[in-house]
Amino acid sequence: MPQFAPNLVLFDLDGTLVDSVPDLHEAVNRMLAELGRPTRMIEQVRDWIGNGIKPLVSRALTGQMDGKVDEALLDEAIAAFDRAYQATNGKFTRIFPGVIEGLKYVRTLDIPVGLMTNTPRAYTEPLLAETGLLRFFDHVHCGDDLPVQKPDAGPLLYVAGWFRVEPTGALMVGDSISDLNAARAAGFNIVCTSYGYNHGRDIRDYNPDAMIDSLDELKSLLVGATT
pLDDT digit string (tens) for 168-182? Predict the structure, then answer.
């Protein structure tokens, strides 16, 4: 197994640290019911998330990964989803096994630790507060902080610059092809979890730098601990 001595570690949120699908599934179905549309199965929602709220809502409306939706309808649906998700956010989410142990270990390293999510700040901050995860991060970057999101390199490069570290020495920990492509484009190393949300595809097929089944395995991947 490879080892890394990163100067910065960024963690994805949904699918990497927490299983938020039950919250999102409930919000999607409340939105669809409000619009008089058929509801969706939780397995469908699991495959549709990872690219932000707008694509999720579009996929829920069409039942397709790349379905097209009238902009007026999409705006109405996003507003309905927002109302629903404000009510469900954090209510059914669970932290994946090994996450707390892994985050505690990374905090023993003399490096900055950040969160990198495509989820808007209005949803991210309450979820972090509800789960108690906020205390682990020096910086939280959300999907509406910049005009671009993962898989664009922009957010990762922005946070690397914010910490004044070299991207080539930084590490992204995520679960999806969006995380992997963003890391590759930014020059980060990328460690992927075997669980999580990757649109029904095996992330191993995309050759991340390392794979883990639990975040507590970071103890054997990252060097430079102070304890």
Answer: 999 999 999 999 999
